[in-house]
Amino acid sequence: MDAVILAAGLGTRLRPHTETTPKPLLLVQGRPILDWILAALPPQIDRLVVVVNYLPDQIEDYLRTQKHLRRWNTVRQESPQGTGDALRSCQHHLRSDRYLVLNGDDLFGADDLKDLVRHPAGLLVHPVDNPRQFGIAFTNPDGTLKELVEKPPLDGRQLANIGVYVFPGGVFDIELTKSPRGEYEITEYVAKLAALRPFQAVPAKFWFPIGTVEAWQQAQTLDLTPCAGERRA
What residue segments make up the domains of the chain, in order of their start? Predict the structure, then answer.
């Protein structure tokens, strides 16, 4: 099964640390964020595609030295137009009939990724207390996705979309349209697939988003045992 890691972002909220280092290579407890992600990938993943743009040579240098996956390549997103565009740029580089797709700058639990890939299609969700800052997943009684709403004006605990998906091979048959902010969003793939077929919302036990310098500093003291999957080097 192929995995796609979206690692093309500028990491502007972590400047000045990302001025010379791409965000996926920032160190957490002595290891790049990207290394923690690769270690957590389930055993079914045997091939990796990484979407790059900002400081791509550094990410490619890391991939040449990592020991988690021998089969990998990068796709350079020359003119980034959103996460949907980033995934779409991988279309001709993917070989499996399903794809695990992950953001390349957060920490995820290995067991959660393993649970997700058991489903034909789905996404990981995690409860948050500040739903106005996240894309929120609303589910049907059977746990499938009903809809995604970006930063809804709600208070109280809700389920956030944490940026990890399993897409069927037919995802690229879906035509994307530009969002109000002028980008092609990966969540449009999710919404249109969920309208056509069951798209499972799988609860994640562990997720740590590294969106700010403060969060990155906090990650240095976390118990990261949940991130240590079977691939740990």
Answer: 2-209
Q: What is the pTM of this model?
A: 0.93
pLDDT tens-digit profile of 27-44? 999 999 999 999 999 999
* Identity at 65, one-letter amino acid code: T
Take residue 202 and report the two structure tokens written for it: 């799988």
Contact call for residues 119 and 200 (beta carbons, < 8 A): yes
Q: How far is CA 115 from CA 106, 110, 129, 179, 190, in A?
A: 18, 9, 24, 31, 18
Sign of CA dihedral 104, 107, 111, 116: negative
Q: Which CATH number fits domain 2-209: 3.40.50.20, 3.40.50.720, 3.40.50.620, 3.90.550.10?
A: 3.90.550.10
For residues 97 and 102, give the distance between their C-alpha atoms in angstroms, rounded to a whole number. Answer: 17
Question: pLDDT (tens digit, 9 = 90+) per residue, 95-112?
Answer: 989 999 999 989 999 999
